[in-house]
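Shipment paperwork, digital attachment
Item: protein structure file
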Amino acid sequence: MDADVTDSAGTPAEPDGPAGDEPPTGTRGPGSTGEAGTGGGAANADADRTGGTGAGTANANADGTGGTGPGAANADGTDPDRVNRANRDADKTGQHAGTGTAKADAHGTGADAHTPNRRRNWLRWAALGTSLVVLAAAAVGWWFYRKLDANITTDITAAAELEAYEKERPKPLAHNAQNILLLGSDTRSGEGNSKYGRDGGSQRADTTILLHISGNRKSATAMSIPRDLMVSIPSCRKPDGTRTKAQFAQFNWAFEFGGAACTIRTVERFTGIRVDHHMVVDFSGFKDMVNAVHGVEICLKEPIDDADAHLKVPRGKQTLRGEQALGYVRARKSIGNGSDTERIQRQQQFLGALVKKVQSNGVLLNPTRLFPVLDAATKSLTTDPGLNSLKDLYDLTTSIRNIPTEKVQFLTVPRREYRADPNRDELVEPAAAQLFKRLREDKPVTVVPGKADDERTSRKESPKRDDGGPTGSKPTPVFSGTTAAEGTCE
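Attachment content:
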């Protein structure tokens, strides 16, 4: 009988088996699916089999995944045990090959399953950390607030005195406008003030400024009141409980007689302007505020050497800090002609430069810069109950911080030498009455730079009506003064 020829060239003929015999268990007969011969030591796998690799790879059943390994048995005519072992090995190898991917998939799926948990944990820790930061910031902020708030001293005595005389006080005429009386006390009591003289148990207002803030918060006018101005001072309550008699005397005696309350009543009497609030700052408070903004720049035409004012600086552009700044605004005899008029002008220029620096450096918008200024201001500050909290001061500051420096004006009440004593001043009428009326009614006040005459009033502008209408018989008064935009070096 001729031998059967297979499709593969060079493949040995399959030996004849007994007629009608079934292939042994685990093997396949000729022509069945998955039949493969081996040539060159490699197993030929059927298309539906994941074929084995390597020399001598075992021929597996059709549904198996091919095994690997040298010396694998053929499906027919071999020892059944060897075939079974080969099939089992092939199955295991196939399972490993198949399950390897499954394990990888399972591992990948497991990682994905754990990812949401890790993300949730991270979010919890992030939320906890953020909460702690917020709580810490709130605690620090509260501490700063309480510290600044506790710095402020409330003048309860003045509030009680003013309430007792409420009926005689002028009524406010302008809606939302504010009139704040700023008092620079020359007291020698308190920390750091004794070096300026002996404490005689009394104090006078070294500087007095009535600050008018317009109702629309678009302008502010600071009107200086000379300490030597002769005015009518009402009967006031003294610190020991006794009362002074009403008298005609120089203005700064009012503060010595009865403190802020007596000064306020005196100002309201000769101006007719309702004073809404007051602040008293001593020497140390002024120095600390200047230091908090790292000094104020001024220009000197001549050097200054004043032992009484503790001031010695060369000519030219200078940056004055605490002690020097205080000496500069207090010096009188060693600068210029020694008059109080020049001293007031110097104070106004310095305050204008201070305002300009505070606004230009962004102090009011930067908490880290604002805190030292507020701390310095509040440590030596005495106010009425309406401004005795940090919130009140902050609200006031924020309401005026956007006023342009050219709209922050400084001027002095119109005055001239007192006829009975050239060392004293008296009001000039009708210029003084015109200025007081405009402030009282919250009307714009126009100031022009330059050295003015005694009346401090001119008619440099074309006449125009107060109401902005057509030209009439009443021109708008113009006063000599300066603005914060000008500074001292311009």
